[in-house]
Design goal:
By secondary structure, the protein is an alpha+beta fold. The protein has 24 helices and 14 strands. Strands 5, 6, 7, 8 and 9 form a five-stranded antiparallel β-sheet that branches. Strands 10, 11, 12, 13 and 14 form a five-stranded antiparallel β-sheet that branches. Helix 4 runs parallel beside helix 7 and helix 13 runs antiparallel to helix 14. The chain starts with 15 loop residues before the first helix and ends with a helix.
């Protein structure tokens, strides 16, 4: 239907009468939005000052802290979340006439061009958030000036994020509004599209990790999908950076980071607004009430719903029945096909507004099922070589290795991050060993196995005989590419003694002296970012039969640190054990040496490093005896000795 245009108003683009009508008709939206920010900014500032007139926070007055810090903090996640919610409300309000056949016919029978009608309604909805933000900005600035602690830059940062974030999300909501003729479909499309990229990626990762050996995720896709999910990206990017006076812990000020991200999204919002205008100009008015009104987007809707249903519901039901199904991708494929077909036909029913759609739609459903089957075959048969692929060590810039919690469970239980070529080569060799053992590892029983030892005195002690670790490997390659894998490695006493096995190579890496040294004494401590404030050790008192904490005298602390590092360098301390076997129980003591460090930066908390002492750490033990910490009355018990006492007590 073509809209008529009067010659007297041919050049007009904006109609104040229609704008005023929208403002009056939908006043609760902008009134609530303004009330929220009026309460959050000037009212909260006045209440804070009234509650504690002479108080201060981190060296600033109440008003000064609010103006310099709180305003900027409110410009981050609170502003983005408010923009996400009120943008869709505004779009639903001003374009609600598009979703009713009578109202859409009435509006487009007026002597207004579509472009002019769109522009007036678009600016009306944008006014619902921008105008209240400007009013709150002015009132807050006046309040700060009255209190004598005005921070114009902080308020301008808040206002800038308000305007740009609202502009983007509102343009995005209007863009979504042009694709549907149903009022309830609009918030559904808007909400789904805001998180679709991240949600789909998580579903794909979950599905692939179910049957593709070593799959965890593709790093670069994470960044791309976060950018395509603006609510996530904005909340992550917009943050407050604090500036401290290091010597006295005084807060000097704060600044907003991530403004460039908001500006980029605002530019994208401009593109979306132009695209929405183009869609509105070509919109079929008789599509009011349809779920999807744009013809070319209907196949995207059908196949999109089918894929999402397959990945979500199909994966869910596969996980429910996984325990009674054989391992692999083919059982999963059955669930994907069933729920993909269900999703496809449901989408077709919504588009056709009837239930009898099978006869005309089965070919599209068959095409979807064929595509899903083909993709499953490619990954299950490893036609891409993904499962067998390991990187060339010469192309690896850095490597990261994590294997969960490994005994002894102290501060040395840390992931490994390295740029050392020799250590990178060992990690790649470990990776290759895991790939070579794929058939064995995929069928290894998960969990830990224990056996009971009976001592001469009749006491019984449980020791581990088999176990497993979840190993994560990440490489940063030349050019910035990232390669990630995650595996479950099972092992027992026999595999741990084989130096060429995956378990044997993992144990060798974890027990490299330089790896243990970095875990206990990272470079940031060696660079003077923190200082040692105390060393404590819990010892068993043979007279009282209780554990007592003994501090190491200040004069001996440096010697104890040196002894620890010497023992680590000699391989006598920090030994990591993949199983709680007899060797681990007999070598590791029951208590840990605790090193407390304090950061020079006042905003950081103290750090405590726990080091499990071991019977092989001769230099450390001798130093503790010379310092008077260890003697005949105050002793260390091994895990083995403690277990015997505990079992005797409970028996």
């Amino acid at each position: 239907m073509r809209s008529a245009t009067s010659s007297s108003e041919k050049e007009r683009r904006f109609y104040p009468a229609l704008w005023k009508k929208n403002m009056a008709r939908f006043w609760p939206i902008w009134a609530v939005y303004g009330l929220i920010w009026l309460t959050a900014l000037p009212v909260s500032l006045l209440l804070a000052v009234q509650r504690d007139p002479g108080g201060g926070v981190n060296g600033l007055t109440q008003a000064g802290y609010f103006a310099s810090v709180t305003v900027r903090e409110l410009a981050c996640s609170p502003t983005v979340l408010a923009a996400v919610g009120f943008a869709i409300l505004s779009a639903m309000a001003v374009f609600s006439y598009l979703y009713n056949s009578r109202s859409v016919a009435f509006y487009h029978a007026l002597p207004l061009r579509r472009e002019d009608l769109f522009l007036t309604n678009y600016l009306s909805g944008l006014s619902f958030t921008v105008l209240p933000a400007l009013a709150v900005f002015a009132l807050t600035l006046l309040t700060e000036l009255a209190l004598g602690d005005a921070d114009l830059r902080g308020l301008l940062a808040w206002l800038l994020v308000q305007v740009l974030a609202n502009f983007f999300f509102y343009s995005f909501a209007v863009f979504c509004a042009m694709f549907t003729g149903h009022i309830l479909a609009l918030p559904t499309f808007y909400g789904i599209l805001n998180v679709l990229a991240v949600g789909l990626l998580e579903l794909v990762n979950l599905v692939l990790s179910s049957f593709v050996y070593g799959y965890t995720r593709v790093g670069r896709l994470d960044d791309l999908c976060v950018w395509l999910s603006p609510a996530f990206r904005m909340t992550d990017s917009i943050r407050v950076e604090y500036r401290w006076e290091e010597d006295y812990g005084v807060l000097l000020g704060a600044s907003c980071q991530g403004m460039g991200t908001v500006l980029l999204y605002a530019l994208a919002g401009l593109v979306l607004a132009v695209a929405a205008l183009s869609l509105y100009h070509r919109r079929h008015l008789e599509g009011a009430g349809d779920v999807v009104t744009v013809t070319w987007s209907r196949p995207i809707f059908k196949y999109g719903v089918g894929v999402c249903a397959a990945l979500s519901a199909g994966q869910f039901f596969y996980q429910v029945f996984q325990s009674v199904l054989p391992h692999g991708g083919w059982p999963l494929l059955g669930f994907l096909l069933v729920w993909g077909a269900i999703g496809y036909f449901v989408a077709e029913m919504l588009l056709q507004k009837k239930f009898r759609v099978f006869r005309k739609s089965w070919k599209g459903c068959a095409a979807l099922c064929l595509v899903l089957t083909g993709l499953m075959a490619v990954m299950e048969l490893d036609l891409t070589g993904f499962e067998r692929r390991t990187p060339d060590p010469d192309r690896v810039v850095s490597a990261y290795l994590s294997c969960g919690s490994i005994a002894p469970y102290d501060s040395g239980d840390q992931p490994i991050s390295t740029s050392d070529p020799a250590l990178i080569q060992e990690i790649v060799d470990l990776h290759q060993a895991i790939v070579d053992e794929q058939a064995v590892q995929e069928n290894w029983a998960r969990g830990h196995s224990y056996g009971t030892l009976t001592l001469a005195g009749g006491q019984r002690v449980d020791v581990q005989t088999a176990g497993g670790s979840r190993v994560s490997i990440q490489y940063t390659l030349i050019g910035g590419d990232v390669m990630e894998r995650e595996y479950y490695i099972g092992y027992d006493a026999q595999t741990l003694t084989d130096p060429d096995s995956a378990a044997g190579r993992l144990s060798a890496i974890l027990n490299r002296p330089e790896v243990i040294q970095e875990a206990y004494f990272p470079q940031e401590r060696e660079d003077g970012a923190m200082y040692l404030s105390g060393i404590n050790l819990s010892l068993y008192n043979t007279e009282t039969e209780e554990y007592e904490t003994h501090p190491v005298p200040v004069a001996w602390q440096e010697e104890v640190i040196q002894a620890l590092q010497d023992d680590i360098a000699h391989g006598d301390l920090g030994r990591r054990y993949l199983m709680d076997d007899m060797e681990r129980l007999e070598n590791c003591y029951y208590t840990d040496l605790e090193l407390t460090y304090q950061w020079f930066a006042p905003e950081k908390r103290d750090t405590t490093v726990r080091i499990t002492l071991q019977t092989t750490a001769v230099e450390t033990l001798d130093t503790l005896r010379e310092a008077g910490i260890l003697d005949d009355t105050h002793i260390l018990e091994t895990q083995w000795e403690r277990n015997i006492i505990d079992h005797a007590f409970y028996d």
